[in-house]
Amino acid sequence: MHQFLSGIQQVGIGVCNATKAMHTYKHLFGMDVIIFDDEAKASLMTQYTGNEVRKRRAILTMNLQGGGGFEIWQFQDRAPQKGVKVQLGHIGINAAILKTHNILQSHNRLSKIEGLVVSKMEIGLDQKSFFYVTDSDDNLFKIIPSDNWFQKKEYDLGGVVGAVVGVRDMDKSLDFYKNILGIDTVLYDGVRVENNQKYHIIGLSKKATGKGAFNKLLGDVTLELVQILNTKAPKIYENRFWGDCGFIHLCFDVVAMDALKAHVIEHGLHFSVDSNNTFAMDNASGRFCYIEDPDGTLIELVETHKVPILKKVGWYLDLRKRNQEKPLPDWMIKMLALSKVK
C-alpha cells in the first residue's frame, strides 16, 4: 500500500472566540505549543464559504507528547453559526480522537472540570476502554488508550490520533479511506445498538511509517467510521459554512503531494482545492489541498515547506531543502516547545 501520509497534522475546529478556545484546549488537553497564529483572507476556500472571501484567524496548537494538534479557526467578518447538536452517526466529523497513557487518570481529571460533560467509561468493539468528553461548545472528543508516544511527561493526554466520522454508505467510505488515503488496517468491524439506534462501526488504523519530518511526533492514525442503519442521518454542515462552529476538517501531513494527487486522479477523484505553491500561515508555510470524502466531509492535506523552530531568533527550517521522507531529529522537534501558549 502507498505511503503518502505521515500522520494527522491537526483537526480543524470552528469557534466563536479563538483566544478563549486556545486557552481552554491548553487547560483541558495540553495543547500548549503554538505553531502559528495567523490572520488573513481565506481566498481559496470560497466554494465552502458562500462564494465570498472571508477574513479569518487560525491558530495551530499542539501537544508535544505526540499526536496531531488543533487548528482553531474563527471568522473575523461574520458571526460563526452553530448547528444542531451532533449525534453519533451524523454525516461529517462527529468527534476528534485523542490519546492517553493513563485512561483512568484522564477520566478522573476531566470529570472534575466544571463545564465539561464526561461520559462513563465504556468498552469498544476493540475490547479497549474509551470515554467521551463534550466541551462547553458541544464539541465531542473521544479519549482512547495508546502506547505510541513521542515523549511522555507529567501530562496524561497526548494529541489527536484520528476522528469519528459519520458516513452514509460504509462500502464507499471504506474504499475512500483505505484505498485513496491508505488507512488500510481494519481494527474492528461490528454492529452496536445504543438508545434505539443501530450503528455499523468500523475502526481503521495506519501505523507510523517512520517517513516524514514529523512522523515520530504525529504517530499512528486511528479512524472510526460510523453508519446509522435504521434512520437517515443529517449532514452536520448542511446549510452552514466551512469555518462555522464544530469540526470543519481532518488534516493529514503529506510526504509527497504530487504523487498523492496523481494517485487521486488515477482513481477518478480530484482535489477540490490546491494552493499549488507555498502558502504562508504566519511563520509557517506549505502547500495545502482539500479532498472530499464520499459524503463531502473535508479532508485537508498539507505538505509542509517551512516550520518555525525558534521564532524568537528567526530560526526556521526549510523542509524543501532536505529529503522529505527523513524524520527530523528529536531535539529539533522538542525546540517547538519554546513557543508556548501564554
Global Rg: 19 Å
Structural class, from helix and strand content? mainly beta
Determine and state the CATH class. Answer: Alpha Beta
What are the low-pLDDT stretches, counting only 5+ consecutive residues below 50? none
At the fold tier of CATH, the topology name is 2,3-Dihydroxybiphenyl 1,2-Dioxygenase, domain 1
Rough outline: globular
Sketch the major β-sheet: 10 strands, mixed
The rounded distance between the terminal residues' Cα atoms is: 42 Å
How many extended strands? 19
CATH homologous superfamily - what is it? 2,3-Dihydroxybiphenyl 1,2-Dioxygenase, domain 1
Number of helices: 6
The SSE string, one letter per element, is EHEEEEHEEEEEHEEHEEHEEEEEH
Mean pLDDT: 92
Strand content: 35-45%
Q: What is the helix fraction of residues, given as a range? A: 10-25%
CATH architecture group name: Roll
Description:
This protein has 342 residues and is mostly beta strands. The protein has a single domain (5-338), classed as 2,3-Dihydroxybiphenyl 1,2-Dioxygenase, domain 1 (Roll), CATH 3.10.180.10. It contains six helices and 19 strands. The longest helix has 12 residues, at 18-29. It starts with a strand and ends in an 8-residue tail after the last helix. The mean pLDDT is 92.
Produce the secondary structure layout.
Blueprint: E1 5-14, H1 18-29, E2 33-41, E3 55-62, E4 69-75, E5 92-100, H2 103-111, E6 117-118, E7 122-123, E8 129-134, E9 140-145, E10 157-166, H3 170-180, E11 185-194, E12 197-206, H4 215-218, E13 221-228, E14 246-254, H5 257-266, E15 273-274, E16 279-281, E17 284-292, E18 298-310, E19 315-318, H6 330-334
Parallel strand pairs: 1-4, 5-9, 10-13, 14-18
Antiparallel strand pairs: 1-14, 2-3, 3-4, 5-10, 6-8, 7-8, 8-9, 11-12, 12-13, 15-17, 16-17, 17-18, 18-19
